[in-house]
Write a structure and sequence with these properties.
alpha+beta, two-stranded antiparallel ribbon, globular, 3 helices, 94 residues
């Protein structure tokens, strides 16, 4: 894996981590509290807002390559040597 692929993979990991938290629909956020909470959560940031707020080491960049509307219930991901991202979704996962 070359340096560019490694940087892209790190960026994807960061973005996917934050996107995972934003996969709830607005109707769920408006209608019920998360388990163990007594007040509704704040509205999630957009993928672009999340990417802009991330701090990464020099030489790394964060790009949004997919957002919550494109990915639902992400359970695994990887990047191949050609720089393609592969994402696994599970509609049976919470």
């Amino acid at each position: 894996m070359n340096l560019a692929s490694a940087r892209s993979l790190v960026a994807l990991i960061y973005v996917s981590f934050f996107l995972f938290a934003t996969t709830h629909s607005d109707s769920i956020l408006d209608s019920q509290f998360p388990r163990g909470q007594f007040k509704p959560p704040k509205k999630p940031y957009s993928a672009e807002e999340t990417a802009k707020s991330m701090a990464v080491s020099d030489g790394f960049v964060v790009e949004v390559v997919a957002a919550a509307q494109d990915i639902a219930n992400s359970v695994a991901m990887t990047a191949d040597k050609q720089g393609r991202f592969w994402e696994t979704e599970s509609f049976e996962y919470p």
